[in-house]
Amino acid sequence: MNYTEAKDKFIQTWGSLGTLWGINKAMAQIHALLLISPEPLSMEDVMEELHISRGNTSMNLRQLIDWGIVYKTSKAGERKEYFASEKDVHELTKQIARERSRREIQPTLKILKEVSSIDEDGSAKTKELIKQTKALHELAETADSIMNRLVNQESNWITKTFMKLIK
Amino acid sequence: MNYTEAKDKFIQTWGSLGTLWGINKAMAQIHALLLISPEPLSMEDVMEELHISRGNTSMNLRQLIDWGIVYKTSKAGERKEYFASEKDVHELTKQIARERSRREIQPTLKILKEVSSIDEDGSAKTKELIKQTKALHELAETADSIMNRLVNQESNWITKTFMKLIK
DNA sequence: TTAAACTTTCAAAAATTATTGAAAGTTTAT
DNA sequence: ATAAACTTTCAATAATTTTTGAAAGTTTAA
After folding, report:
1. For chain D, which bases have at least one atom within 7 A of a protein Cβ?
2. Measured CA to C1', what is the nucleotide nearest B62?
3. What is the pLDDT of residues A16-41, one digit of tens each?
4. What is the pLDDT of residues B86-123, one digit of tens each?
5. Do A2 and B163 lie within an 8 Å CB cutoff?
6. Where does the HTH marR-type domain start and stop, copy by copy (chains A, B) (predicted)?
7. Quick one: A81 and A95 in the same domain?
8. How close, in Å, is residue A55 to chain B by CA atoms?
9. How many CB atoms lie within 10 A of CB A40?
């Protein structure tokens, strides 16, 4: 496998993996491309490399920036903007954890709280609803704590800590 | 909020959350419904409760069974099959971790290995590709170890262990 | 063996999501 | 102030994914 094959395979794989996790293909592929690019890329560069339109590129770059994992940079004397990915995979993990917590876990916790707080009326179905949503609430809270922990630690904490647990 | 409102809200929320994580809405909703149902439900029950077609119900129940989080049961003297969810949220977590590891992490690891093993040719782009895919490989391996750990421990390990980390 | 009760399959339709591209918007240099 | 260089927006279109429903398949009882 040569460089080009490897690069394409990586971008392709990252794209499908993204899809599997609810991230659109273009967004995942742009991210993959920036992650392995030694230099920041312009919008033109991204469009050419991935064969996607200007509009698509613009929107997905924006989303990546919103997620806090891609940055805008500019080259001295150039008008265009250049884009670079966060390169440290631990930083990346932290940032994604932070965002998923904020966007998904927090709102879910709120709803699980509401649902599990309905009045107990003695019926089996109400009991079960309360019991299960409480259990999920507890689980989600634990997951959230872990994520917040990750977010507030230095990069290598993740690996170090888990390695201790694993061996 | 009464029982019916709470139930609908929970099913609705679980459905959207599923969508966000690449799980189709019907599948997530069927799972939610079974999770809070004190009794196993027939296909008819599920169809009526969620207003989805027979075909859709059948296919998604099958997928849930493939994921190992829903079981078929039968009632004595009855022809129909009944379906029940795994109720223990820790078991559920373990089973989902097991499947995601098998279906997603393992294949990704394999490709990251291949890609990161291309010949170093001294160019900056090859260097970066190798460096970043190696880093991702290491990260994915760590994630996989954690998941395997989860899978092989008793239900409460998750909470207990993480609680120690968190406080 | 037949038929009723039930489940699965799958091609077609519907719904959703992603993508395009051109017009509108913005920024910067002169 | 103008225009070139560049980016963003968004309505239209395309692609993908989900859902339907009826036919085919299966199982069980008699």
Report:
1. 5-11, 17-23, 28-29
2. C8
3. 999 999 899 999 999 999 999 999 99
4. 999 989 998 999 999 999 999 999 999 999 999 999 99
5. no
6. 28-77
7. no
8. 23
9. 18
